[in-house]
Predict the structure.
Amino acid sequence: MSTDARPTGDTDPLADGWRRPRGPRSGYRVDAWVALALAGGTALSLTLTRSAGIMDDSPWWLATLWVALIALPLAARRRFPEIVALLVSVVFGVFGSMGVTDALFSSICLYVAIYSVGAWSHHRTVARWTRLGIITGMFIWLFWTLIEQANQATTIPELSRDGFFSPYAAYGLLQVLINLVYFWAAYYFGDAAWHAARRSSALEARTQELAAERERTATQAVTLERVRIARELHDVVAHHVSVMGVQAGAARRILGRDPVAAGRAIAVIEESARTAVEELRTMLGALRADDADCDAAQPAHQSTSTRGVDQLAELAQENTDAGLDVRHQVIGDPREVPGTIGLSLYRIAQEALTNTRKHAGAGATAELRLRYETDAVELEITDTGRGAHPRSAAAGVGATGGLGQQGMRERVAAVGGTLELANRPRGGYLVRARVPLAGASVASPLTTAELLLSPTDRAAE
């Protein structure tokens, strides 16, 4: 019943078509302030450059237009990174050819524009070719300018053009190296920012998934624990009510002619009722706990009952008192049995003896054997009954329309054991459960769910 909460398409950080979110509206305000700051810095740098006489003297209106076109478009670099980069690069080249430029801030503006394409573009192929196109165009313009100035002795006259590797050639090579580092940095750090945002988004998405899964698991653990307690209630009620019903019928039949025997039957009813109430009170206390307390104090694998293999003798005596002659036998050296396995074996024995009383008929006897092996424990319940309602292992007839034997199978499967249900060749019925003890303390996280859920529930899962 679980659903895949992972984002898909352009919202999944791990998908090829992932698009970096534009971020909150405050990010656009930050970009606007950055653009204004670069415009102010560019204007100041241009003013100082012109005052120093380094650049050609151009009209102020043209210089003002250059400042506005090379810096202010950066306010939209997050939303339209390719368009902004192309505009800034064209302005940089065209106005630079006209002599309208400065020595610092125009290069910063171009760097930010190229960086933004790598950092914010939603179309990675377009982003790659846009940057490569701009860089290629800039290098063509650089080489053309160097070649053109090489034949003009009036341009940078202090650099000689003579010789194979002249001072001017060294100057030109230095310009190429500077631009290589400049454009590589703009390209690389733009991509690095995009990948960092992708990793951060993936981490945030996985954190949200884990939080949601943890919440679902906690809710499911509480639900499964309550379903398990409901199954315990079924076992307790089925067993004790069956005992009380048998004893009540016997007391009614002999009350007139044998009051002492009827009194013993009524005493058995009283004891069964008292035991049932004690167990019900324990389990209902867990059911009344709120979800948080139940999840913290009663994990799904923890038992709310103290019943186990040590109480099998009491179970046998209880059934004997109820009119079913049960012989209890322990074979092998007793050893410690984990609580989950012990409870499962106890409930299987309880269910099997309840079925015997209901279906084996009058005069039937039963044997309850617990066998300790080297690496396993085996529980075997046999009876001599020939009841009017045969218990077919294939049909799975149980205490309540098939739930009894189905519950046995689920309990055995939950602790990694095997169950055999069969009619005996000479009459009667056999229930044999064998559970390995090696590694029993390490329970599989799925076994509890297998114990609690019916086959239909598991199919729905």
About this structure: The longest helix spans residues 167-254. Residues 1-9, 294-304, 393-401, 440-461 have pLDDT under 50 and may be disordered. The beta strands are 325-331, 365-372, 376-383, 418-423, 429-436.
